[in-house]
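Continuing the series of single-chain predictions for the mutant panel. This is the parent chain; the variants come on the following pages.
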Amino acid sequence: MTPIEKDANDTNSSQKPKVNKRFVKYAFLAFFAIMISGFAITLYYYLTSPSTHAVICSVFTHEISPQQAFPGREYVNILLMGRDVDRDRRGRIIHSRGRTDCMLLAHVDFRNRHVNILSIPRDTLTRIPGYRGRRRISYANALGGPELAKKAVAELTAVPVDHYVLINFEGFEKAIDAIGGLEVTVDKQLDYDDNWGNLHIHLKPGRQTLNGEQAMGFVRYRQSNSGEGESDFVRISRQHEFLRAARAKLADPQALLRLPSVLDTVASDTQSSLTMSQMLCLAAFAKSLPSSSIRMETLPAISKNTIFVKADPDATEKLVQELFLQN
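Parent structure:
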């Protein structure tokens, strides 16, 4: 079924949450902490202001536990999103909510001590609450912001989504540059130019260190200049490769020392519904987990073409049961 689609960009900025810059720094930190196990948090133990220092001390001395940060909860589900930006004919950024180009649903289980992450292809068809027909799930944020994106993911997976972290791609590039780039294996020649979207990807196959712009191209690539496309599932496999590389990179204390110089800039690129104490608890929890306790999967599908994705209901239900409901 062809999705009903239209220009969903909303330029009304009055609905955008206002977030303190220091708070947003920790939203950015938690974004990495949850996805790549939170090694960066140790740096902030020494670099934050006295008031924040007290909160961090409370977290790391277990005076504030996950159960205190999330009262009555043994687990929490968090939607992690990378937001695309729209541009006008001159290539200037249009300030709108934007579609999400990357969606990860993370299940953080405090009792059983593990994190499960489900990658959701951006072209997955689903019902978006309040709108007729089925649309690509990437449109949910553009239509109604992060809260509607949460509802759309809940509609698709039957998993209640508690919180969100949203970062735009400029923030992504700055973050990668801040830690000195990432070493990944590029699976094949990647060449793509989108002058309208200001996206230019030119990568050769093999093991190499990517800067922020190159890493962005690596995780976003889906089509060559000749028009040859590939499914979102191939791209998601690259995103998983990226996450593993980022986790390894942040294990190096030298990489962490590069982060403070760009935090103020990255702060404006990030939104979250989590409080600072919750962020810190999540970061400390994720940091304590071994690699074997972090599982990454992709939404099962019965249609994997380059236009849209149809989820496999039975396989999705089974995987969701394994990742989110077996507590």
